[in-house]
Amino acid sequence: MFYHNFKYTLKRLLKDKMLIFWTFAFPLILGTFFKMAFSNIEEKEKLELINIAIVNNEEFENNIYFKEVFKNLSNKNNKERLFKTKYVSESKANILLQKDKISGYIVLKNTPKVVVINNGINETIIKQVVDEISSQEKIIKDIINIETSNYLNNDLFKKNSISNDFSSSIYKKALKTIENSSIKLNDTSNKNLSYTMIEFYTLIAMGCLYGGILGMVAINQTLANMSRSGKRVAISPTSKLKLILSSSIASYLIQLIGVFLLFIYTIFILKVDYGNNLFYVIFLIFLGCLAGLSQGVGVATISKSCENTKTGILIGTTMLGCFLSGMMGITMKYIIDKNLPIINMINPANMITDAFYTLYYYNTPDRFYYNIISLLIFSGIMIFISVLSLRRKKYDSI
Amino acid sequence: MIVFKTYFKILNKLKFPIILYTSILIFFSIFNMQTSDSSNNFIATKADVAIINYDDYKGITKNVIEFMKKNNNVIKIKDNNFNLEDALFYRDVNFVIIIPKNFRKDFLDNKKPIIEIKKTGDYNASLAEMYLNKYLKTANIYLNVTKNEEELINYIERSLSNNTKVEIISKLDTIALNRASFYFNFLNYCILAGFIYAISLIICSFKDEKIRKRTIVSSMNYKNYNLKLLFSNSIFALILWLFYVLLGFFILGDVLISINGLLYFVNSFIFSICALSIAFLLSNLLSSKNAINGIVNIIALGSCFLCGAFVPMELLPKTVLKIAHILPSYWYIKNNEVIKTLDKFNFMSLKPILINLIIILIFTILFIIITNIIAYKKRKID
Amino acid sequence: MKSIIEVKNLTKEYRNLKALNNLSFDIFEGEILGLLGPNGSGKSTTINCILSLLNYNSGSIKIYNQEMQPDAYNIKKDIGVIFQDIAVFEELNVYDNIDYFCGLYVKNKDERKELIKDTIKLVGLEDFIKFYPKQLSGGLLRRLNIACGIAHKPKIIFLDEPTVAVDPQSRNNILNGIKKLRKQGATIIYTTHYMEEVELLCDRVIILDKGKIIASGTCDELKELINIEEKVTVEGIDINKNLLKKIRDLKNLKNINNHEKTLIITYQKGKNNLIKLIDFLKQENLPYSKIYSERPTLNDVFLELTGKDLRD
C-alpha cells in the first residue's frame, strides 16, 4: 500500500507541468538572472584607476614635489597606482570633465584647487590625495626647520653659514623620511566577503520552501474535503496517515531532486561558494526541504481553502520570507537581523539563508547549529499541527 | 459598451497583481530616498567605519580616533564577534579599526604597536584605509622629531589640517534625477509583471474557446468586437500610465516638473504601448492561464535583471548588456539613464533619446506583426 | 432477506438547516435500492454519512451489524462508490487511474491485474487504456469514473447519479453493467433523476424530500400510493359545460381538466375506463382528433409527492 501510493504520487506530481515549472525550473532561471546581474557588482566596487587631468600651467611645472607625487601615483609599475592622469590646458580639462571622461581636474594657482562635476567617492579620493600632498609639504618644512635648528645648535662654528649642499641634503633626508615611514596594519578580514552569495542562498531557501507546494498538492489529493479523489481515498480501506506519510515522502523525494539540481547548477554553472564543509551543506539542504515539506503539509491540512489559494499562501509566505532574508537586497536581512531579530527567528527562509551564510563566512559552527535547531523546531511545530488536524476523520461538510 | 464594461469587470478580478507590484514600486522608491542634500557645495564621501578601542581614550589614541571620526562616519557596533563580522559582510561598515591595549604607551615608546583592521575591499574601505595610513605615517614621522605627546599631537594636527578647495561646476540636480531614474527604471517591473499579466489574462478570458464561439454566433460584428477590445485595452493602458505618472509626482515631487520629467513621461508612455503589444503577443501565443503566469514572470524578471532595472546598468557585465539589446526594456532604461544626465536641450542632446524611442516603437510594430501572423495561422488550423 | 445496512434516526444539521431529519431505513442484501429526491433533498448527504465521510448529529449507521467508522477497514473493503462528480487524476492515464484506486483495496499485484482487466471489459474501455482523462469524451469519462469505483469487486455499491450527461449508448452500457454487478451478488444503492432508470432497475425505492423519507416501497407500491390508475387525454375537442358535467358523472373518475381543446381525465381505479369514455363521446356525437390513455409513471408519483415547485 505504502509503495503503491508512493509510486503513483511520484507519477502524478512529475506529470504536473506547472508544478514542476515553479519548483524546478523557476529557481534555476532566477538564479541565472542573479548571476548575470550581480556578477560584476563587487568587482565594480573595488577601487579602480581614477581618470583625472592636471592643468599643466607654469606653477605646476615649477612645483617639483607635486609633479613627482602625481607622476608616481600614475605610474603603471607602482603597486599603489591610483590615477590615470592627463596633463592638459584648463579649457581642455573642462571639456573632458563635461564629457565625463575624467572625474575631476586639479589646477595649481597659489593653492591647489580641485574641480569636479558632482560629489562622489572618486572626487573625494582626488581631494584626499591633494590634501595629503599639502600635509607632506608641511611635514617637509617642519623637518627642515627642526633639522636646521638642531644643526645650528650643535655646530656653533657654522653659524650663519648654511651651505646649499646642506639644505639640499636636508631636503632629501626629509623626503626619505616620508618615503620610508611605512606603517604596518594587521589585516584580519575574512576572505569570504562576497555578499552577493546571500542572493543565491535565499534562492536555495526559496527552492526548499517552494517544494512545499508539491507536498501540499500531494496531501490535498488524499483529503476528502479538498478533492474528489480524496473522497475516493477516504472511503477505501486504507489508513489515512499511512497514505499521507507515503505521499509526503514521495513529494519530499521530488523536492530533494529539484533542490539538488539547483544546488549542483549553482556550484558548477553559477560558481556559488558554499564554504568548505560540503557535508554540512548537504545536511542543511535535507533539513531545508523538510521545513518546506512540513510547511506545505501544514498549509494543506490547516487551511480549508481551495488548492489555488493554498498555492498562493505558500508562494506568498515564501516570497515574503525570502524578501526579509535578503533576496531583493541583502540590506533587508541585515536590518531585520539587527533591529527585529524576532522576525527572522521565525522565518524559515532566513534560517536556511543564515545557515548557509554561517557556513560560508564563519569558521565556528555555533550559529549554524542554532539555525539547524530552529529549522527542526519549525518543522516539528508544522508537523505537529498537521497531525492534530488530520486526526479528525470525518468532516462537517464536504 | 458592453464589451468595455465586461472588460473592466474582469479587470477588477485581476487587480491583485497590479496592486502588489505597485506597492513593491512604492516601497523600493521610498526605500531609495535616503537623505542627502543636493547643495552645490562639495561634500566628501565618508566611509562607514567601526572603531573598537581597547586602549584608554587619551592622548594619541584619542587623537587618532578623533581624526578618523572627522573624516568618516563612525558606526557604533558592540564588540561581539558576530556583530562586527556581520556588519562587515553586509557592508554596514566598510572598515574596522581595532586599537590594541597600551597602544598609546607602546607608540610613544616607539615600539611600533600594530593596529588590527578588517576591511571589505571596496572603494570606501580603501578611502578609510588611506586616512588611517596618512595619520599613522605622519605620527611616525613626527615621533622621530619629538617624544613629547602634546607637541607630537600639535605637529600632527597642524600638518593634517588641510582643506583643498573643491569646485563643483555642474548645476544639475543629480540626486533628485537619480531618484527619478530609479523610479522609472523600477516601473519597468510593474509594467511587465503587473500590467502585461493582467492584460494577457483578460484577453485570454475573452479568447477562451467557448466564449469566443458564443461571441462569434452573436449578432455583434466580430471585427467591431475586436476593435472594442483593443480600445478597452488602450484605455486601461492609458489609465495605468497616468496613474504611475501621478504616483511619480507624489513620490518624487517637483523634479518631474521639468523637461527631464516630460521626457520620462514620454519614454514610459511609449514603453507602455510596447508592453501592450507584448501582452497581445503572449495571449495569442499561449492558451493556458498558468502558462501565461509563468512566462510573464520570466519575461519581467529577466528584463529587469538583464537591462538594469534592479541593478544599475553601469554595474552590469558588458556581455549581459549586449544580450539585453534584444529586449525593449534595455532601450527604455537606457533612455532613463540618458534623461538623468541631460541638462541642455537641443536636437543634438535629444537625438539619442529619439533613437531609443524609435527602437522601442520598432519592437512594438514587430510584436504586432508576429501577433497577426500567429492569429492568421491559428485561424487556418481551425 | 438479510439487512446489511441499517440506518436509524439519522439526523444532520448544517447550522440551522436540517439536512437529514430522523432518517431510518434498511438496505437488504442483493437488492437495488433507488434513492430518489429533488436536488438538495439529502441524497448525497445520506450516502456521505453512511460512508463515514461526514459527521452527523445523532443516529446510528450499521453495516454488517457493525457500527460504521472511518477506520472500519473490514467494511470499507467491501464498499465501492461512484461519485456524481468525476473523481480521477488528470495526470494519470486510464489504466493507471484504475490501478491506483484499485490498489487502495487490493494489495496483490497479479490479482489486481485480473480485476482491472475485468473492469475495463465491463465498462468497455479496452481501446482507451493509454488515454488521459482530458482526451476522453463525456461518456467515456463517466465509464472511467465508474471503473475506478468498482474495480475491486465491491459487495456494496453506491452510485450517485452515474448517468448524468451521457449518450444513450453509454447509458445503456452503464445500466447493463449495473445489472451484471447485481447478478454477481452486489447490493446497489442508486440515486438518479431518471425515473425510467429507476423503474427499469430498482427493486425498491426511497423518496427523500427536505431530509425526510416521504415514501418508500416497490415501484408498484408507490404508484398505488397516489391513487392514480389511469390518465386519459383527449385532444381537439370542443366541449360545453353541460357535457362536462355529464362526463364528471362517469364511474371511477377522480379529476377532470379542460384546457384549450384538450381534456385530461384521471381515473382512480377500475377497468375499461377508456372504452367507456369513447362510447360516451360517440353517443354524444362529439368530434375529436386524438385520444390516448396512459398508466401513471414514477415521474407522476414523484411530482405528486414532492410538488411541482422548482428546487435548488
Which features would summarize this protein structure in a list?
heterotrimer, A: 398 residues, alpha/beta, D-Maltodextrin-Binding Protein, domain 2, 4-stranded mixed beta sheet, 18 helices, 69% helix, B: 382 residues, mainly alpha, abc type-2 transporter like fold, 2 domains
Can you give a write-up of this model?
The complex is a heterotrimer of chains A (398), B (382) and C (312). By secondary structure, chain A is α/β, with parallel strands linked by helices. In chain A, 69% of the residues lie in helices and 7% in strands. Chain A has helices spanning 2-15, 17-38, 41-45, 58-62, 64-73, 90-98, 121-154, 164-180, 197-210, 212-220, 228-235, 240-268, 278-302, 307-324, 330-339, 341-345, 348-361, 366-390, and strands spanning 50-55, 83-88, 104-109, 111-116, 185-187. In chain A, α9 (197-210) packs across α13 (278-302). The radius of gyration of chain A is 34 Å and the shape is elongated. The mean pLDDT of chain A is 87. Chain B has 382 residues and is mostly helical. Chain B folds into 2 domains: 2-36 and 173-381, no CATH class; 48-160, abc type-2 transporter like domain (abc type-2 transporter like fold, 3-Layer(aba) Sandwich). Chain B contains 15 helices and 5 strands. In chain B, strands 2-1-3-4 form a 4-stranded mixed sheet, covered by helices on one side. In chain B, α11 runs parallel beside α15. The longest helix of chain B is centred in the last third of the chain and has 35 residues, at 347-381. Chain B is elongated and about 105 Å long. The mean pLDDT of chain B is 86. Chain C folds into 2 domains: 3-224, P-loop containing nucleotide triphosphate hydrolases (Rossmann fold); 227-295, Alpha-Beta Plaits. In chain C, 35% of the residues lie in helices and 28% in strands. Chain C has helices spanning 43-50, 73-76, 94-103, 109-123, 138-150, 168-183, 195-201, 219-225, 241-248, 273-284, 298-306, and strands at 3-14, 17-28, 32-36, 58-63, 66-67, 79-82, 156-160, 187-191, 204-209, 212-217, 230-235, 253-259, 262-267, 290-294. In chain C, a hairpin with a 2-residue loop joins β1 and β2 (17-28). In chain C, α3 (94-103) packs across α4 (109-123), α3 runs parallel beside α5 (138-150) and α4 packs antiparallel against α5. Chain C is elongated, with a radius of gyration of 24 Å.
